[in-house]
Design brief:
The chain is an alpha+beta fold and about 200 residues long. It folds into two domains: about 5-105, no CATH class; about 130-190, Alpha-Beta Plaits. The chain has helices spanning about 5-10, 35-45, 70-95, 110-125, 140-145, 170-175, and strands at about 20-25, 50-55, 130-135, 150-155, 160, 180. It has a two-stranded parallel sheet with strand order 1-2. Strands 3-6 form a two-stranded antiparallel ribbon. A two-stranded antiparallel sheet has the order 4-5. The two termini are about 30 Å apart.
């Protein structure tokens, strides 16, 4: 789970008798296991009952590293997710329980654990320094407004990244002129497409 979410859960007080509903998004069906199972363990220590725990399949946001799926496929996936959430909301309102165990296949745990360590202890502390903005920037501020952890500020009309960035790549995908870049030397890097749902993907 994102580091900021883990910290938030761990800082919650004990709430005996309270119930919680957990939802995570994921882009690879083999990655389902750890975020939800970790959150459930934390909440159990807080004496909170988890009566709903599920995952929602979404397009991968890490388009610096992987090519995005075709735009129409991504839109279709989001539409399916919205219908799934509507059904889950109805079940929660009706008092239905849908918590279950989530497991990552044993043979994938070692490589995924190594990837997790690299992301948590290298990319999160240092990755914010790797974001760049090209001369195509129009100073619209969309990236700064959208950042969920407020790690981007506008300085002299251009975005500046700061410590605390969670590498969600929302800024990268939301920039209307594709001015934000990262790891240009890593394969295609920022030359890959983005999820710009408001316009035709080029």
């Amino acid at each position: 789970m994102p580091e900021v979410v883990e910290k938030w859960l761990k800082n919650m007080p004990e709430l005996p008798g309270k119930k919680a509903c957990l939802f995570t998004t994921f882009a690879n069906k083999l990655h389902v296991g750890w975020a939800l199972s970790g959150a459930i363990k934390i909440l159990k220590r807080k004496k909170i009952e988890v009566n709903t725990a599920t995952t929602i399949l979404m397009p991968s946001s890490f388009t610096v590293y992987t090519d995005p799926m075709p735009l129409e496929n991504a839109k279709r996936l989001v539409s399916v997710a919205e219908r799934s959430l509507s059904r889950l909301a109805a079940d929660i309102t009706a008092g239905k329980h849908s918590a279950r165990g989530f497991y990552t296949p044993w043979f994938l745990k070692p490589p995924y654990f190594i990837m997790h360590l690299g992301f948590r202890y290298f990319m999160i502390p240092r990755g914010w320094k790797r974001w760049k903005v090209s001369d195509a920037c129009t100073s619209c501020g969309a990236c700064s407004k959208a950042c969920p952890v407020k790690a981007i500020t506008m300085e002299n009309g251009r975005p500046a990244w700061h410590k605390g960035c969670q590498q969600c790549e929302l800024c990268f995908n939301i920039c209307p002129v594709k001015a934000i870049t990262q790891f240009e030397s890593l394969g295609k890097g920022s030359k890959r497409g983005r999820y710009l749902f408001s316009q035709t993907q080029k």
